[in-house]
Amino acid sequence: MLRIAVVGSGPSGVYTAQALIQQNRVPGVRVQVLDRLPCPYGLVRYGVAPDHEKIKSLQNNLRAVLEDERISFLGHLEAGTPGLGPERLLELYHAVVYCVGAATDRRLGIPGEDLPGSHSATDFVSWYSAHPDTPAGDFADGALTARDAVVIGVGNVAVDVARILARAADELRPTDVPETALGALAHSRVREVHVVGRRGPSQARFTTKELRELGALPSADATVDPAELALDPAYGSPGTAAALPAVHRRNLEVLRGWTENTARPGAEGGRERRIRLRFFLRPVELLARDGRVGAVRFERTAPDGDGGVRGTGRYEDIPAQLVLRAVGYRGEPLPGLPFDARGGTVPHAAGRVLRDGIPSPGEYVAGWIKRGPSGVIGTNRPCAKETVESLLEDAPRLAERRVADDPEAVLRAAGHRPVVWPGWLAIEAAESALGASLGRGSVKIPDWDGLLAAADGSADGGTGG
Ligand code: NAP
Questions:
Q1: Is residue 268 within 8 Å of residue 220, measured between CB atoms?
Q2: pTM over cut 0.85
Q3: How many CB atoms lie within 10 A of CB 341?
Q4: How far is C-alpha 80 from the geometric centre of its chain's CA atoms?
Q5: What is the pLDDT, as a whole number, of residue 416?
Q6: Using DSSP, how many helices (H) and how many strands (E) does the chain show?
Q7: DSSP of 177-200, one letter per residue?
Q8: Which residues of the chain have pLDDT under 70?
């Protein structure tokens, strides 16, 4: 029997586990999926916006995989902590596949970035997603008293946070957004949300479906400045636009529609809030006012003819009492694993972890920690498949390694208290009960104590210990 640990239960981890059990080259594979949280599903639970119910429903597919009898879930186990480092895991399992994602945000590296009122978008996402590492009070005590918010970056995370800021709380009530966040959003005074890209609309990273959604919100008008659209070389030139990737071409078409037809959703229609898409503005400084952020200074940029931009020496200040920096995620080193700090990834060859340039027997990576934080959820499938192919090629040698017969028992004997599947089901049941008590559907529990207490309430004790 080949015992494999998959570290991380987000899409890349679950797709890796699935590929391992669906193959028929190596018989008798058993997979344990470890996660540092007591809850599975990674960014599908803690990153996908609550109003994206269809993407959220992917949890049902991931659940079906994790409920396979050849797979077990061990939550509340953090790989890389003392007693659970890569060396130890290799004593317990024939192979370990790290699918730990990109846990932190990229920095802007400009003055004023850490002023009160300036936050990473990933922190805001974690807050409204009830991530237990983000205190429920974080954005509840004052951040949403801002009238003007600036979101820096024009990727899908920027679009997500702008949309949540622009929605009326009633629109979010049917979702699983935690109660504290819902209350804070209900009292939000945010009226203007400026979403700002340093390059042009034809280089924006958001996808067209997400952009269209911004133009169709019930309580916010989405606008774009025609003069800034016109700065884009592809905007007025069908020939240049035709050479763009389809998603960028379609984005331009949607934005053109916003400027051309004032009767269409997306034009200024007197709704309560406004989302203003801005382009060719590079952030240079966050300006303080009364000890907090009061505005963001941008330098006007111009296309350099090569897909990039150059500065023009002209500046514009956009008022902002709340700034969300949505400039991408970044992978973090896992103690004991090699790390390429420049790319924020683990060096690898077709998923095999490289130590000093040489494949390390039994160690693999998949997902964002392998290829960097890009692509949609489905991108993780082929990525996981490639890694599993490598692992299966190596299987005869891996099987020769002597490992523990029952890794879970060894971990428990060492004092770990994993949350196993019934514990997770108990958390789900507690979240349904919480929602029912509030007259809502399922509502997420936002804190560690609450999650672990709910897991403990399961029939077999939840932590099984
Ligand atoms: P992203 O797609 O990489 O976008 C990052 C944005 O930040 C880009 O506009 C980038 O501009 C800008 N940026 C980077 N450094 C900057 C700087 N120093 N100053 C100003 N702007 C800067 O990252 P993301 O939005 O975090 O998304 C990560 C991944 O998750 C993406 O693959 C995304 O599609 C996915 N995701 C998908 C969904 C969905 O499907 N609904 C939702 C959320 C996230 P440049 O292009 O000029 O570098």
A1: no
A2: yes
A3: 9
A4: 21
A5: 95
A6: 18, 18
A7: --HHHHHHHHT----EEEEE-SS-
A8: 260-269, 458-465
Amino acid 135: pLDDT: 82
Q: How far apart are CA 258 and CA 73, in angstroms?
A: 47
The Cα–Cα gap between 459 and 429 comes to: 12
Spacing, Cα 328 to ligand 1 middle (Å): 5
- Can you give the pLDDT at residue 236? 79
Among residues 187, 36, 194, which one has the least CA distance to residue 103? 36
CA 213 to chain centre: 19
Q: How far away, in angstroms, is 446 Cα from ligand 1 center? A: 26
SS3 of residue 46 by DSSP:
helix
What is the residue with the minimal CA distance to atom 23 of ligand 1? 328
CB count, 10 Å around CB of 7? 29
Residue nearest (by alpha carbon) to ligand 1 atom 36 = 156
At residue 306, the pLDDT reads 86
Check residue 238 and give its pLDDT: 79
- Identify the pLDDT of residue 143: 83
- Give the closest residue (by CA) to ligand 1 atom 11: 153
Give the pLDDT of residue 266. 47
Q: Which of 164, 280, 327 to mutate to test the pocket of ligand 1 (most atoms within 8 A of CB)?
A: 327
Is any atom of ligand 1 closer than 6 Å to the C-beta of 199?
Answer: yes
pLDDT confidence of residue 239: 79
Q: Residue 194 in contact with residue 150, Cβ under 8 Å?
A: yes
Q: Distance between CA atoms of 151 and 351, rounded to whole angstroms? A: 34
Assess whether the C-beta atom of 158 lies below 6 angstroms from ligand 1. Answer: yes
Structural domains in the chain, CATH included, are 2-103+331-418 (3.40.50.720), 106-327 (3.50.50.60)
